[in-house]
Design a protein that fits this description.
about 45% helix; binds nicotinamide-adenine-dinucleotide; binds uridine-5'-diphosphate-glucose; EC 1.1.1.22; NAD binding
């Protein structure tokens, strides 16, 4: 029986291993982590991450062939296949600060594997890493190996949060990169046989190590580029009277373009896109490709522009000042169906509003008040370290409230900003909201989930990303002066 151990019980390690355990009942899967709180969460009735369908998967195999433990060394030592799914944050200091991947956690995991291993192992890169990381890991293991033989595989993860279980059950593809030696190919086969238990063979792609590592960064860069492209067009729509939803639908009908990932928004967030593109930019610079680096950097540039453009619209529409005005923020997670707030556009928007002295009232069905305050107090990129190691500043004494429903957030507010596309925000009683609010009452829809015309009929002044502007906004400058 193959024994699997996964180092890192986070958004990737937890769900991925739970699905492997479910689909391979004869394989023992142990997920280990240095964070006691995380492991305690996985062993409890309240899992440490919110992901639709995950509770059920974990309940069906936890204690049978799926285990969560802090005894990292024991289970790594016993495993045949060790997945490494630890944080790979953006460096905040030193060479490559603000761009390069910080491989501290990866390196310490690799050194620990070398320390405790007494039998040959396949080590699988599950974290997203710079191209050529496998070479560095091989060196660490080879120089500390005491005769143990290792094969390194790259098996990047493509799941998206909110749909992780669905994505893992029916992935578009599973990618496995390995050395092109007989030993390397034998290791690829071991991992392929695990996935082949439920993934059709034609969806399991095998490549060389560097192609697999680079494909992950490239896939995220392409996805983020689509969002920045449609967001760039959204600004032009507002200037011309075109409607970005109609434009996206029209171009998406071209089968060469396709309809998905063309929703204009307040900006993309999440733990991956920005980090991985910065990583790609840094790699390009290191290989002497500044033009390529600049090309990808601009995807982030447009994303930052989109977030500040949204704040500018709010401020300029409200007579160029939000000082002392209550603004309700609906949604703080970076997308619906997750409680994850890493790099969420809501942080930048709230900071922008607070910078203009607004009083902000936030409601999100899955994000706690503690998390909101941590996020608003945290420095850029610090969120991507294991939670118990995150340097968190004292929450500043800011005029921020976190409410338990949308109506409470909107009570007495001058404006509502919709920043996450939660289903419940589509179905709010906007007439009731309007009655609760100061007048003129504004809605700024950063996700295009409300019908602007219906809200205008109620009496709201509505701004929706990339949609024709109503007269009020046409009369205001797009950029606050
Ligand atoms: N979140 C996603 O949707 C997603 C999808 C694909 C790939 N990825 C990549 O996967 C990796 C992990 O992402 P995540 O979202 O699961 O992060 P996460 O922060 O949720 O989980 C990482 C876990 O690793 C643990 N850890 C760190 N160093 C450790 C060590 N030396 N020993 C044991 N445990 C250790 C941390 O305590 C943490 O619980 C990153 O490289 C990320 O870019 C993430
Ligand atoms: O048309 C769209 C689609 C997405 N978004 C935003 O883009 C961000 C990222 O969304 P999504 O990609 O769905 O979620 P992630 O969980 O960040 O997943 C991405 O990042 C993961 C980590 O690398 C990869 O594994 C996934 O394949 C990749 O989709 C979110 O803020 C979304 O709201 C838009 O604004 N418009």
């Amino acid at each position: 029986m193959v024994k699997i151990c996964c180092i890192g019980a986070g958004y990737v390690g937890g769900p991925t291993m739970a699905v492997i355990a479910l689909k391979c009942p004869d394989v023992e899967v142990v997920v280990v982590d240095i964070s006691e709180a995380r492991i305690a969460g996985w062993n409890s009735d309240r899992l440490p991450i919110y992901e639709p369908g995950l509770d059920d998967v974990v309940k069906r195999c936890r204690g049978r062939n799926l285990f969560f433990s802090t005894d990292v060394e024991r289970y790594v030592g016993e495993a045949d296949v060790v997945f490494v799914s630890v944080n790979t944050p953006t460096k905040t200091r030193g060479l490559g600060a603000g761009k390069a991947a910080d491989l501290t956690y990866w390196e310490s995991a690799a050194r620990m594997i070398a320390d405790v291993s007494r039998s040959d192992k396949i080590v699988v890169e599950k974290s997203t890493v710079p191209v050529k990381t496998a070479e560095a890991i091989e060196k660490i293991l080879a120089h500390n190996g005491r005769g143990v033989r290792y094969q390194i595989l790259s098996n990047p993860e493509f799941l998206a949060e909110g749909t992780a279980v669905r994505d893992l059950f029916a992935p578009d593809r599973v990618l496995i990169g390995g050395r092109e030696t007989p030993e390397g190919q034998a290791a690829v086969k071991v991992l392929k046989d695990v996935y082949a238990r439920w993934v059709p063979e034609d969806r399991i792609i095998t490549t060389n190590l560097w192609s697999a590592e680079l494909s992950k960064l490239a896939a995220n860069a392409f996805l983020a580029q689509r969002i920045s492209s449609v967001n760039a067009i959204s600004a032009l729509c507002e200037a011309t009277g075109a409607d970005v939803t109609e434009v996206a639908c029209s171009i998406g009908k071209d089968s060469r373009i396709g309809p998905r990932f063309l929703s204009a928004s307040v900006g993309f967030g999440g733990s991956c896109f920005q980090k991985d593109i910065l990583n790609l930019v840094y790699i390009c610079e290191c290989y002497g490709l500044p033009e390529v680096a600049d090309y990808w950097r601009q995807v982030i540039g447009i994303n930052d522009y989109q977030k500040s453009r949204f704040v500018n619209r709010v401020v300029s529409s409200m007579f160029n000042t939000v000082a002392g005005k209550k603004v309700a923020v609906l949604g703080f997670a970076f997308k619906k169906d997750t409680g994850d707030t890493r790099e969420t556009p809501a942080i930048d928007v709230c900071r922008g509003l607070l910078g203009d002295k607004a009083v902000v009232s936030i409601y999100d069905p899955q994000v706690t008040e503690e998390q909101v305050r941590r996020d608003l107090a945290m420095n850029k990129f610090d969120w991507d370290h294991p939670r118990h190691l995150q340097p968190v500043g004292e929450p500043a004494d800011q005029p921020v409230a976190v409410t338990s429903d949308a109506y409470e957030a909107a009570h007495d507010a001058h404006a509502v900003c919709i920043l996450t596309e939660w289903e419940e925000f589509r179905n709010l009683d906007y007439r009731r909201m309007y009655d609760l609010m100061q007048k003129p009452a504004f809605v700024f829809d950063g996700r295009n989930i409300v019908d602007p015309e219906k809200l205008r009929d109620i009496g709201f002044i509505v701004y929706a990303i990339g949609k024709p502007l109503d007269q009020w906004l046409k009369d205001m400058p797009a950029v606050a002066s």
